[in-house]
């Protein structure tokens, strides 16, 4: 199902993954989209990817952010990272409302998720630093329902039991996919500031995208006091930008009402 904008709405069946079997990195349009699958349809498919343009809001004061070349990345807003989850982040549920507000201004909404098989290398029983979390087939792996409702592309990471992935770009091909859709700028919110948000933002900078983390839309674990702020400073040092929700919305035009209804996918 395509909108006038060419964005694919997610509908249809859910791909199933057995225990210990790596999941495909993308789910778009209700089917899995990986290296071996049919290319995802989009407006202008087959055209050469646009070159990245490294322009940040701070570089061009007063510039309007164009939703047509902007992707919102909602990082790991999953039940196990929300209060009460296996690795719940204090105040983590407060990121949902600002992410929803940002989604109305973005041309593409991407949600990343940890999607671990049982016995993943990051789990304490396997010598990793974390308790089991976001295990495929469990409720803890589910996206917050409000994020699930707005996500047009879901990127799974950590699906290989022997590989840890904090960044949504790590081994997923997300950078190439965004460039193929003409994305030049990414706006990032989610969990947690000092782990997967940090890694995803640094990778986005490395991929050449103009990158902004929205302070109101992230929360930190802060295992050591100040970890979240140090992560934001590291993102700035890499060429990224940290803005408030008000600053970002002030740089974006009022969104037009989207045509067509959003069909919500069933939770994984």
Structural class: alpha/beta
Give the C-alpha Rg.
17 Å
**What is the distance, rounded to the nearest whole angstrom, between the alpha carbons of the first and last residues?**
20 Å
Strand content: 15-25%
**The CATH class of the domain at 65-250:** Alpha Beta
If you average the pLDDT, what whole number results? 78
Number of helices: 6
Low-confidence stretches: 1-22, 29-62, 257-268
Briefly note the CATH topology name of the domain at 65-250. Rossmann fold
Helix content: 10-25%
Topology pattern, helix = H, strand = E: EEEHEHEHEHEHEH
CATH architecture of the domain at 65-250: 3-Layer(aba) Sandwich
Shape: globular
CATH superfamily of the domain at 65-250: Isochorismatase-like
Instruction: Summarize the main sheet.
Output: 8 strands, mixed
Count of distinct strands = 8
Strand order of the largest sheet: 2-1-5-4-3-6-7-8
Description of the structure:
Helix 4 (193-206) runs parallel beside helix 5. The chain has a domain at 65-250: 3-Layer(aba) Sandwich (Rossmann fold), CATH 3.40.50. The protein has helices at residues 96-103, 145-150, 174-180, 193-206, 227-237, 245-250, and strands at residues 26-28, 31-32, 70-75, 108-114, 153-157, 185-191, 210-219, 241-243. The protein is an alpha/beta fold and 268 residues long. Helices cover 19% and strands 16% of the residues. The protein has an eight-stranded mixed sheet with strand order 2-1-5-4-3-6-7-8, sandwiched between helices.
